[in-house]
Amino acid sequence: MSALLLNLDFAACPPKKSLEGNAKHRNFVKKRRFLEQRGFLNKKNQRPNKVPKPHSEPTKKGETPRVDGPGKTHPPPGQKTAASSNGSEQALDRKAAVSWLTPAPSKKTDSVVGKVDLLGEFQSALPKIKSPPARSQKKAPQKRPPQKSATQNATQVPSEGVCSRAAQKPGKMVALDCEMVGTGPKGHVSSLARCSIVNYDGDVLYDEYVLPPCPIVDYRTRWSGIRKHHMLKATPFKTARNQILKLLAGKVVVGHAIHNDFKALQYFHPKPLTRDTSQIPLLNRKAGCPENATMSLKTLTKKLLGQDIQAGKSGHSSVEDAQATMELYKVVEVEWEQHLAQNPPKN
């Protein structure tokens, strides 16, 4: 039986090339080919005749694959011999051991489903790459409301702001009035002889007689109310001036024709912090007087407050005049402060 199989195998094989070498080598090659055909040996050192294609078509039913491994060629599929059947069985066993070498048969290799399956397998085999973190979208800048111009702000001053500003002033507001006597040649120089300061409510903060640095020529008692005995215990001018300036520092000073008082004090107060009731057209209008005229403190107090001041022959009282001046300021306080906010005075 073995001899028969041997004859069949040699008959099925293609004509062999002439062997070169001596008889011993020919016998060795003959036996090796016999063992290789029987499947007991593999051709390790011989180079493969055909390199398998990466995308080979699946085998059909009843056919054996043409190439199982490198350098192994099978007979045509139409010839069925015992040797080929034994070789195919051994090849199938080796395929079962390494199934990934041969692609699985598919009836619909050209269909869309088959392509999608192959694509899914290919993508699943790829290494997973972490996607970069999504960039946070920048927030759109919020549009700011259009800013009003300085002229619009000046023309639209809220009354609440004026009231709140006026409410904060009482603690920093004082009224000042001074009485002067005549010094120098013929008593034509006005020198400070009394100074009175009251707060927003009319309370007296300072009231002192002041001794001028020069001899008094005219006491002007009819208007100043100063007499000789008032100067016996009077405060020296320099001392009184320092005390007065400490009280006026940083405060809004109200007065009537106050530039005369500052001149007697030899002092200049910031104009934005000065309120002169003799220079307010609104006050004259409310009193029914010409707006451009300079009205006396006695006239304005009589018409607007209904009070009589500077009456009698005893002269004026600086405390009374300072209190009357503060009350006149309160009559036009809101309108006056609003006007000054729109037209701030310059020094």
UniProtKB/TrEMBL annotation:
InterPro entries, sorted: ISG20_DEDDh, REXO1/3/4-like, Ribonucl_H, RNaseH-like_sf, RNaseH_sf
Protein origin, superkingdom: Eukaryota
Molecular functions per Gene Ontology: 3'-5'-RNA exonuclease activity; nucleic acid binding
This protein's UniProt keywords: Exonuclease, Hydrolase, Nuclease, Nucleus
Ranges of biased composition (kind: Basic and acidic residues): 54-71
Subcellular location: Nucleus, Nucleolus
Range of residues in the leader sequence: none
Domain Exonuclease residues, every copy: 172-338
GO annotations of cellular component type: nucleolus
Region of interest: Disordered: 33-94, 124-165
Protein's UniProt keywords contain Metal-binding: no
Compositional bias annotation for Basic residues: 44-53, 136-146
Chief site of localization: nucleus
Identification of the protein by name: Interferon-stimulated 20 kDa exonuclease-like 2
